[in-house]
Amino acid sequence: MKSVINTIFETKLAELKDKITTLSTSVRLTIVTVGDDPASKVYVRNKIRLFDELGLECQHITLAEATTVQADLDLLAENADHPILFQLPLPNGLVAPDLPATVDVDGFGSETLGQLVLGQNLVLPCTVQATIDIISAHCGEHNFAGLKVAVVGRSNIVGKPLAIELINRQSTVASFNSRSDLAAVDWNKFDVIVVATGAHGILDNSQFIEGQLIIDVGINRVDGKLVGDIRHHDGILSAAAITPVPGGVGRLTCLHVLGNAVKLMEHSQN
User: What pTM value is reported for the model?
Assistant: First the structure.
């Protein structure tokens, strides 16, 4: 699957480079972080590096955990005139402001998600778009209709919007979460299984069969190593195609931060 991910990344990046040359306005992004979360530092660094490589402006605003209040974040959101994101997680009960769709590069805001329900969204949440890309590469861009997909996870960031987007594409979707009786599920009846719970070991590679596509969205640290939600048993080589962690969905998610910024800047010109 790594070669598939690499091909998707390079193809999408080339398309974005071409699109950027057609814009009359330069692509800009502001990233806001609060505190010193180690994982957030890695994610932000990857995003900034991608923008830098293309000669695009990416402003990084860092706020102190001890002194930042909700009003500080809300003010940044109110004054945003170009794509902006608030890097999660946020400490001390702070929440990402509910951004208008025109600057909501993460695609997490209520306006963007409401538009998604109606099939009128400007962008998809970045991880959702990455997942759609992988399904398209494996199953064919025009083969979503009737595709049987299990979505394990119900977050507002991945699980819910992914299920809605798949329904919009006429897939047959079954939704599960960490409270579902997963042991009783016949996983063999699904063409695609997306696991996005943030709980390592919620499913394992012995449960899948040849021909299935398994998309592991989870990022967990176990014994000092980054692993996904799917447990890989030693000595068991799954017949299904399973995305790697790291180097799978996360790599494409980072790319779609750029992709969404480009789409929003393009929309602002129209």
Answer: 0.94
